[in-house]
Structures are given as C-alpha cells and as structure tokens.
Design goal:
single chain, mainly beta, Porin, eight-stranded antiparallel β-barrel, three-stranded antiparallel sheet, about 5% helix, about 65% strand
C-alpha cells in the first residue's frame, strides 16, 4: 500500500503546482470504454515439487476489458494535464494440455481481475484534436481464479504495477473520444505460482484502449 500512496503523492505533486497558473482551466468528467490486450502466444510447463512435468498451460484468449471512472483536466493554453481514476475489469481464459493428467486435456479455466487504473496524461490540444502520453498505475483490487482447484496453485498479485499510455483524442463540445496504446513493465502472468515456483509468460502485455467521456 505504501507504493499506492507514493503514486498518489507523485500525481498530486505534479498537478497541484499547476493550479497557480492564472490562465488554468479545470474540467471534471466521466469516461468509460473497452480495451483489448495483446500477448504473443506462450505456454508454461508446470513442474511439481519433484521437478516432474505436470501439464502445459497457455493463454487461450484475453477477453475485452471494460472501464469506467472519473477524469480531471487542467488546461493551460494548449497544454493540459489529465489524471484519471478508472475502475477496470477484465478476464483471461487458459487452456491446458496434459502431461501427467489426461483429464486436463483441452480444459479451459478463467481468471477475472478488478483494478483501479490511474493514468496521468499530459499533452497538447489543437482545436478539437489532442495528443497525449503519460505513466499509468494499476492498483489490483481483487482476482477470482478457476486455477485454485489445480494442484499446487497459488496467486501472488502485486499491489501495484506500472506502465505507460500514449494516444490521440477528439473533443466535440462536451463529448471526448480517446484512442490509446498501453505498454506495461511487468510480464504477463507474474502472479502465477505452482508449488512455490514463480511463472510468467515472458512477455509484457500491450493494450488498445477506446474511451468515450463526458465533461461537465
């Protein structure tokens, strides 16, 4: 939790001094949308405590994520800073191949995640068109996994993971459209542990994010 508080303090430290700008304009809005995650195909060979091969597990599909939350925009001439606080939910399906357990052949199990995403976007606005980029923090709230019924499985989620976003936006009156690319600094599946051995898919996931917002 200390890292979460540190992230909030960093955001406040960047945003609050800007409020002293005489020509600053502050807008508050809501935003919601969808995201799709890309990950190069990978599979994990799970071993037991005696180093014997148990089964293979691979990502079958990362389902669309949904997000909704608040945004705050501090506009200073053409430059703006925009912190956001978004509830995000997504799920992933894993497929098994047997090694020692024939009953796992073709089995599909899911994990569902709930997070708070905190992007801190900075950019420039030219008329109705925007470009922006910035860091993003993902605070993990909860995870429900069907993998818990598999031998030796344990989930070890970090409280906070970090990444970055960049993209474009279009403002039409009070309606805001955003299209972003997101990269992350953590390998996908780092929370997966079998028999006290840590696994991951040796790839950092990327996301494409589309959002619709309304500014009051």
């Amino acid at each position: 939790m200390r890292r979460v508080f540190s992230l909030v303090l960093v955001i406040a430290g960047l945003v609050l001094p800007s409020l002293h700008q005489l020509d600053a304009q502050v807008n508050i809005g809501i935003r919601a949308g969808l995201s799709t995650t890309h990950l190069e195909p990978r599979e994990l060979l799970i071993k037991d405590q005696n180093e014997l091969d148990l089964f293979l597990i691979r990502v079958k599909e990362i389902n669309y994520g949904v997000h909704i939350g608040l945004m705050f925009r501090l506009q200073m001439n053409s430059f703006f800073i925009q912190p956001e606080f978004l509830y995000n939910s997504h799920s992933v399906d894993y497929e098994f191949d047997e090694v020692q357990y024939p009953e796992l052949q073709g089995l599909v199990l899911s994990e569902r995640f709930q997070q708070i995403d905190i992007p801190l976007m900075m950019g420039f606005k030219f008329g109705f068109f925007r470009i922006n980029a910035g860091p993003v923090g993902h605070i993990n709230l909860n995870a429900v996994s069907d993998l818990t019924n598999q031998p030796g499985f344990r989930s070890k989620l970090d409280d906070l993971t970090l990444g970055y976003q960049a993209g474009i936006g279009i403002d039409i009156w009070n309606i805001h459209l955003d299209f972003r690319y997101e990269g992350n600094f953590n390998n996908y599946g780092e929370h997966i542990t079998f028999f006290d051995r840590d696994y991951d898919f040796s790839d950092t996931p990327t996301r494409l994010i589309a959002s619709l917002g309304f500014v009051f």
